[in-house]
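Hypothesis: this fold can be encoded by more than one sequence.
Test: take the C-alpha cells below, design a sequence, compare later.
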C-alpha cells in the first residue's frame, strides 16, 4: 500500500484529527509536534486567566472598590459588601461548576462552553473599566459575573489536561501551566501597579484612570492568551458519551456524589485535598489582613504579592520534577511541611522582613502543591466524566474553603488577636498530609480506567 507523505497530505491528516491521525505509526514526528503545541496552548490559558486572579481579584479591584464605596458608607460596611459579593460569586461558581461540567461531558462541549466563559468573563472585566467614577454597585455586579465565568472556565480548562498530556506526563504539564500562569500574571500585575503608582509617567490623568486601564488590559490579556487553546487543543473525542443526551445534569451530579463511596481512593484524596487546600486558601485570604494588624505597611504587602508571582513560577516547575523522583504524594506532603513552618513562623511575625520571608516560603510551595493536586485528581477520575468531576472538584474546594477563614475569624475575635488564630491552621496541613499519603494512586487510576472501559 502506498502512503501519501506529501506535506499537504500530512497537514490535512493532522488537522482532521490532531492527535488521532497524527498519532499513528506513520506520523510519529508530526504527533510529537502537535502534542507539544497543544501543551503549550493549554499552558497559555493559565497565563490568560492568571491576570484576572492577580490584578483583579487579589491586588487592584478590592482596593479600588473600597476607595469608592467608603465615599458613601463606613469602611466596615464596604468591607462587608465586598465579602458578600465574593461569597456569592464563589457559591454561584461552585454550584454551577458540576452542572456545566456534566453538560459538557455529555454533549462533548468543553471547548465551546469554555469559550463562552472567556467571552462573558472578559466582557465583564472590560465593563469594570467603563463604570462611572464613584459608582460602586456596578463594580460588584460585574465582578460577581466575571468571577463566576472565571471559576467555571477553570474547571473546564482543568478537565482538558488529559487531552494534551499522557498519563505519565500530567504532573509535569500541570506544573508547567501553573508556572506560566505565575509569570504571566506577574508581568501584567507589575505593569498595572506601575500605571497606578506613577500615572503621570505613563501619560495618565490620575490613579482612577490608571486603574480602569488596568481592568481593560486584563480583559485583553485574558482574551488574547486564550486563543491558542481554541486553535490547538482538540475537544476530547475518546470518551464515551451517554445515550440519553437529555438527562438532567443535576441528577448526574447527585449520582456522582453518591458514587464517591464506591471510589474509596478518590474520596480519600478529596478529603485530604479539602483539608490542606482550605489551609492554603486561608493563608492567601487572610495574609494581608493579618499583616496589616501586626503593622506591615502597604508597600511591603503589595511588593511581596508581586514577588510571589515570579518566585512561584520556577518553584512550580521544580515541584513537577520532584514528582518524577519523590512521587506526587510525597512532593505535596513536602509542600505541606513547608506550610506548617509558615504557620509557626507566622505566629511569631512582627516585622516587614518576616512577612517577606513568609511570602518567599508561600511562593516556594503554593504553585507546586496546587499543580500536583490537579494532576493527581485528573489521574483518579474516568475520562468520560472529566468535566463533571472537575466541576465537583472546584465546588468542593470552594465550599470547604469557608471553614478555615471562619475559624480564623472566630478565634481572632475571641482572643482579641489574629496571632492565635494563625495556629488554627496547623491541623489542616498535618491531617491533610497524613491522609494524602494513605491514598493508593495506582489503585484509583486502575479503577478509573476500568470505568471508562466498562462504558
Amino acid at each position: 500500500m502506498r502512503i501519501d507523505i506529501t506535506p499537504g497530505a500530512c497537514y490535512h491528516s493532522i488537522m482532521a484529527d490532531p492527535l488521532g491521525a497524527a498519532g499513528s505509526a506513520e506520523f510519529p514526528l508530526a504527533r510529537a509536534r502537535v502534542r507539544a503545541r497543544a501543551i503549550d496552548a493549554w499552558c497559555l490559558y493559565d497565563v490568560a486567566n492568571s491576570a484576572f486572579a492577580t490584578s483583579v481579584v487579589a491586588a487592584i479591584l478590592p482596593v479600588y472598590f473600597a476607595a469608592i464605596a467608603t465615599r458613601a458608607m463606613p469602611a466596615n460596611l464596604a468591607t462587608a459588601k465586598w465579602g458578600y459579593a465574593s461569597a456569592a460569586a464563589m457559591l454561584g461558581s461552585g454550584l454551577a461548576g458540576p452542572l456545566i461540567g456534566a453538560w459538557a461531558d455529555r454533549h462533548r462541549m468543553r471547548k465551546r462552553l469554555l469559550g463562552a466563559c472567556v467571552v462573558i468573563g472578559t466582557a465583564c472585566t472590560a465593563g469594570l473599566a467603563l463604570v462611572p467614577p464613584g459608582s460602586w454597585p456596578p463594580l460588584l455586579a460585574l465582578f460577581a459575573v466575571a468571577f463566576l465565568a472565571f471559576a467555571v472556565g477553570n474547571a473546564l480548562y482543568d478537565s482538558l489536561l488529559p487531552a494534551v498530556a499522557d498519563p505519565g506526563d500530567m504532573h509535569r504539564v500541570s506544573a508547567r501551566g501553573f508556572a506560566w500562569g505565575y509569570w504571566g500574571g506577574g508581568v501584567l500585575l507589575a505593569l498595572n501597579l506601575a500605571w497606578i503608582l506613577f500615572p503621570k509617567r505613563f501619560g495618565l490623568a490620575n490613579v482612577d484612570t490608571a486603574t480602569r486601564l488596568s481592568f481593560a488590559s486584563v480583559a485583553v490579556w485574558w482574551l488574547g492568551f486564550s486563543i491558542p487553546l481554541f486553535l490547538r487543543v482538540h475537544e476530547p473525542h475518546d470518551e464515551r458519551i451517554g445515550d440519553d443526551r437529555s438527562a438532567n445534569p443535576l441528577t448526574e451530579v447527585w449520582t456522582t456524589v453518591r458514587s464517591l463511596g464506591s471510589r474509596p481512593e478518590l474520596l480519600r484524596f478529596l478529603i485530604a485535598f479539602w483539608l490542606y487546600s482550605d489551609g492554603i486558601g486561608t493563608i492567601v485570604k487572610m495574609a494581608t489582613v493579618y499583616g496589616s494588624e501586626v503593622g506591615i505597611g502597604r508597600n511591603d504587602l503589595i511588593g511581596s504579592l508581586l514577588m510571589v508571582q515570579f518566585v512561584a513560577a520556577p518553584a512550580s516547575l521544580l515541584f513537577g520534577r520532584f514528582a518524577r523522583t519523590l512521587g506526587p504524594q510525597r512532593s505535596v506532603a513536602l509542600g505541606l511541611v513547608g506550610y506548617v513552618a509558615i504557620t509557626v513562623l507566622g505566629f511569631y511575625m512582627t516585622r516587614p522582613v518576616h512577612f517577606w520571608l513568609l511570602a518567599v516560603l508561600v511562593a516556594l510551595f503554593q504553585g507546586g502543591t496546587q499543580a500536583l493536586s490537579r494532576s493527581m485528581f485528573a489521574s483518579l477520575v474516568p475520562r468520560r466524566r472529566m468535566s463533571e468531576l472537575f466541576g465537583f472538584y472546584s465546588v468542593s474546594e470552594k465550599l470547604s474553603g469557608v471553614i478555615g477563614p471562619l475559624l480564623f475569624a472566630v478565634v481572632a475575635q475571641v482572643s482579641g488577636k489574629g496571632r492565635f488564630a494563625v495556629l488554627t491552621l496547623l491541623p489542616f496541613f498535618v491531617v491533610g498530609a497524613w491522609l494524602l499519603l494513605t491514598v493508593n494512586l495506582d489503585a484509583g487510576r486502575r479503577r478509573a480506567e476500568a470505568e471508562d472501559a466498562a462504558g
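The two ends are 35 Å apart (CA to CA). Residues 1-26, 239-246 have pLDDT under 50 and may be disordered.
Hypothesis status: open.
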